[in-house]
# Entry
Amino acid sequence: MGFFSDPISFLADWLTALMTNAGWPEGLINVIITFLGVFVVANFGMLFVIFLIWLERKLAARMQDRLGPNRVGPYGLMQTIADIVKLFTKEDTTPEGADKVVFNLAPIMAVLSVLLIWAVIPFAEGWIGTDLNVGVLYIVAVGSIGIVATLIAGWSSNNKFALLGAFRTVAQLVSYEVPMVLSLLIPVLLAGNMTNIPGLGVESGMGLGSIVRAQHNWYSIFFLMAPLAALIFFISSIAEVGRTPFDLLEAESEIVAGFHIEYSGAKFAMIFAAEFLHAFTISVLTMTIFFGGWQGPGDSIPLVGWAWFMVKSLIVYFLVAWVRTTLPRIRIDHMLNYNWKFLTPLALVLLISTALVDRIVVDAVDISMTQGQIVRTLSHLAANLLIAWATIAILRRRQAARPTRQPVASPRPVARPPEPETTADAPAA
Amino acid sequence: MTALQIIFLIVSALLLVSAFMVVTVPNLVRAALWLIAALFMTGVVFVLLDAGFLAVVQVVVYIGAIAILFIFAVMLTRRVMTDSGPQTNANWWLAGLFSLALFGGISWILLGWDGANASAPAIDPGLDTVTRLGTELVNPDAFILPFEVASVLLLAALIGAVVVAWERD
Amino acid sequence: MLDSWLFVGILIFVAIGFPAVPILVAYFIGPKRPNPIKKETYECGIETVGETWVQFKVQYYIYALVFLIFDVETVFLFPWAVAFDQLPLFAVVEGIIFIIILVGGLVYAWNRGILEWK
# Structure
């Protein structure tokens, strides 16, 4: 492995050889190499946030016909750095009556819950922190630490708005975890049926590495087999991050900033950084689980695989930012209805149909052949389209059955310049 | 002592401390947070026992759902920051006596068991424990009945929760 | 097997250190001029009235309960999904029956109006 195609493995091998020659015990070398890997992954996450914040502000500004940050550095690139310096030199206030220990613990747990997800994310061939055989469930488990962080941040602030934000957290984050986990079962199930194909390197288990390798061809990408599951995962992940349109837990115009209202200075910076990193993390997860991860032309060179990883992730992140700048905040009853009466039943139906279709098709055709895999993909796609069509038909019927609401008032005129009085000698418009 | 044993000793010490704090801390939300710490440490013990699946399930179900439900129940029913119930009642010594007896009994049983001194057998690396669990859960010769009964039990729990919490009006 | 968790174990410490160190540094380099008004609870500039504790809707709790049931359900389904390639059709159907029983629970809750935000 040359340095330029695979710098990470190259450096790891070189350091291992160096320490082995120095006569260090094997266990210690393992710990040191792992620690360096952890350091690289964690730094990548935290430093990338600095760029992400600039990117998102720039995107949001362009979509709203503004310029965005453009004063500090070229294209305003240094704006976030300036913000960090500002936040760090701010006074750190803790409100009267707050539970100090818990209050300080919450931002740390928020960052912890997001950074821990990065342990199982495959960046490229061989570039993965650790391919746990329970990877997908691990992501869900770590996410629940984030829910606890939000909850205790709201509780410990001793603030009515913060407490209200914390209560909305339970209603929202906890509710949307159900369709998210159900939609995650579908790729696990699809990857599970690839373990018998030799030469693919798909092991049993729900590790993300296996899920990526199961999507080795363009026709075996899970987005083609389970587009609805991908959509459900994407939507419920946005709700898990708590971004617009699901930003009820911080709703500026109602409860000011919700659970993090009392946080200032570096603690606020940490909660903010955790939120941005989480938004990027869900883009990475959507891309890894449903769009083939780092795979793309030339991915046998890890550096190229990593480039694919970044390009695909940033495209999904663009979607997340687009949704954020486009949609208004959803009302709380709509938010809950959308989850429990739309996403969850849909995810359950999808899970049942995917299981049945996959078992029947895989028994009928030989999926170690290309034709067999294409037939499998097409039948899944057909089942998904059928379910989508049925869902839309049911929604249409319910829409038609709903009594039409009487208008409360006649539409008021929009403010516009007074129309010129039409007189006989006025020129025709 | 191997590194694993040292880690186990630290983790179990932390687990015991957290568990002790759960019952002694006067503030109820703080007690729930200590409970989360204790549950997390239990998850770490599962990891040390090579039971990765149980470890993540421990975190998903106990921290992600049950502990949150606890905090939530406390926040719904008690005054948020100040309220703290009495720590003991008149029968505290009886409870302590029973706990000691239980601890002694379990220790006595474990000391007489030959498995207590044996080290855990290594798992065959070719065997994926989660896959094995999955096949056994729906295997008619193994756990299919408990698996389906679990579903019915969950349904009963859901209906029960609805009836208890909702039928007032 | 245990080695694969080493990364997670070390990452926990690093991921606690990453936010904790900046917060500590900021605590030392930031100005400290507290005054009673600054330390008051923020309520858009108006003095807070009464306690923070307000009676909340019980319904928040019901959603959490329904969530708990579904959370436990999916935990049972994950091993089933992982072992999918080794399962014959009837074992797949057993898993589906497991799901359908719980769909029954969702339908019940829906019919009783539990999922209605009032």
About this structure: The longest helix of chain A spans residues 26-63. The two ends of chain A are 75 Å apart (CA to CA). The longest strand of chain A covers residues 122-124. Residues 421 and 427 of chain A are 11 Å apart (CA to CA).
